[in-house]
Give the backbone structure.
Amino acid sequence: MTDPHDQTGAHRVFEIDHEPDWFSGLTQREARLLDGALAFHCLARPGERIRATVLRTHGPHLPSLTDQGTSSIEWPDDRTVVGTIEAHATGHPRSATGVVDVVLDLGGPPESLMRNEQPPGRLHAARNAVRRRVPVAFDAARQLRTDRLENRRLSRPIPRVGRLDNTSVGSSRGSTKAVLFGLHWLELGGAEKWATETISLAREAGLFPIVVSDRPSGHPDIVRPEYDGALVIPLTHPMAGAQESRLLSQLFERFDIRGVHVHHCSWLYQRLPWIRAQYPGTELVDSLHVLEWRTGGFVDIALRLSNVMDAHHVISPQLRDYLVDRQGLPREKVQLATLADLTIDRSTVEAAPEPTRKAGDPLTIAFVGRFTQQKRPYLFLRLAAHLRATHGDRVRFVMHGDGELAAEVRSHRSRLGLDGVVELRGPDQPVSNTLGVADMLVISSDNEGVTLTSFEADAHGVLVLSSDVGSQASVVLPELLLPRAPLAFLRAAERTVAGLLDDTERSTALLHRQHGRVSAFAALPDARAWTRELYERWAS
Amino acid sequence: MTTTNVAAVIVTYNRADKLGKVIEQVLSQDRPADQVIVVDNASTDSTASVLDQYRGRDTVHIEQLAENTGGAGGFAHGMSVAYERGADLVWIMDDDCYADTDALRQLVDGHAAAEKSMGMRLPYACSVVKWTDGDVCEMNNPEPTWDWGKLLARGEQSVLVNSCSFVSVMFPRWVLTQFGLPLSEYFIWFDDQEYTRRITAAGPGVQVLTSTVTHDLAVNRGVNFGDVNDSNMWKFAYGVRNEASYRWHHEDPFAALRFAQRLFTGLRGGRVPWRLRRRLAKKFVEGIRFDPKPAFPRTVL
């Protein structure tokens, strides 16, 4: 068996004093989590020996790798000790005196972690019960609240950090040219897919990828080949302040970090002013995907920190307009570069695909995406119930995905009597198979940037019906855009599907127009090209 | 380096006799508009044949609406199209406005100079609107701010204004993003006042005194409620409803009452028949219940 440890770049920053037998018994995911944790603790205490007690559990518990809790040498009863290991940072003499003890909990298996996180308290329990029982009504109230919060948020100016004019202090000192990436987590998602792609691009440009992630997760994607050879440190919070700065300063001393690329990582965003102050030679950029109307999300965090950043990469015209026109950022600082070909090769879909459905054939409607609150799978199920009641077996449904609402999706499906009507497909099956059998894709999300599935659907000759959120209007035809409010969404979707059920001619015409729209969007600057050029400049 | 993309928007309805000259004046600017968007509000005269002469021109884009949406709807549509087509500055005018050859250049330069001088973004710049005899056009005279002469004192040929009409006024793109479009629901009259007052929340507008246009109206007379008669009643009806709505919902009920008093005095002064006065009173009440919200443009590409 290949030692999973050898595939990571962690060995660049720490050495294991004696590799124990149990180490090779870890799954690759666990081994990489452990590597990241050891890298953190060794870098945070260079010159000291780190003695780690490694735990795991079968329960639904998230890893604890870098937080202050790792210094406590007691743990809950359901944890199992995997073993102990000693390591120290490279480049520093091994301390002869004593060791620093840490307890590293690798958490439970990722499948046990896929659940809807519920904050504690009776209020949240009641809220969750209502959401489970009457999801559409709950969503209607939620959207009203979103409208109100959106108006309130937009009426208030976003505070900005001060500019740093004095940039006379040091810069990164190592010799290996590197990029520091900040990720939300190493799980499935559009932003993460793009982040992973940029890590490959960095490597292609000759830059060593250093990745920190921010959110608690089992990080199932840490095993992806893109992370082979990278230094990946999955952070868990809260960390000690002194350790945070030591981690960053050690990274900047050991590597020649040419640039920082933030992908939805609050922790790294918040540390950009410090990085700019200490290492002004390093370029700071981010990639932005979605404007969260309730909170502003990462876009507003980026705005707050824009004064210390060099560029913002955005994937949709909506974000560009928001940053430049509404928030007044200089146009040259905001780069629109789309992800239209991130998941498909557009060179193979130049011609408009022809629909295969003939008049009288049943219409297959698909949902593809994570089963989360944002994607609103319950709306799709409700739509399926309505259409089934009206049109019988002339309509068929496929739901492809998984996620924290998976159990609820199954129970709603049963409750609505759709067990034999809506086919559920898991992520073990390729999305292309689902789009291959679908005639229409319904995107019911309450928020999006531009969905990658829209491009994939178009490439398969599938019409896209979507809620009118984010920049979906860039790739979805106006007559196939649906209101965000759930009841209006259902009414409009039902009406649109009914109108297309027998009218294959109109469906074909719409498909051609949709393809033209998607192609026009895809002709905008490409994110890969922009990033490749950026990294090549950093590497030179 | 970026270049500024200026879109000129002309809204027309049954003015085939004047439209050609309006378009020609825009096309012959010494700082040409990068795109000229003509919105035909479902004209029923020979407007189509006038527009046919411009179809296929590189910079001209014609938007044919299926129904007459009024000046308000036409401007909202045209501005939205200009926004979607990537305009940085949107210069709008009626179909009886003849721009002098340097009107656009003066507007662009005057606006930039005023922004520099004021140290802030300014939401619009309008021209001096003359009547056909060279005198000021009464209907299109902007309302100055209390400190209107600030830029004049600094040697610039601009004055600060609170509101202006839609006869040669230019909006930067960010205004459309931030404040949306004119209210189509107003249909006609007071849409320009509402819009320019709405966007003045971001700062004053400027009237660039060196940018001049001619408004080819039949008579040079401002809005006067004493002029109401059967033939122009429909326009005043929109005007009263819209202004009542604006004063009530966007200023305060006292402003609406002051407007009611002005309306009453004007109608009485003009000895307007009681049946028309009653109809306008109903429009006033309708305005209190009428509170449309702005639509926002968006870029698809």
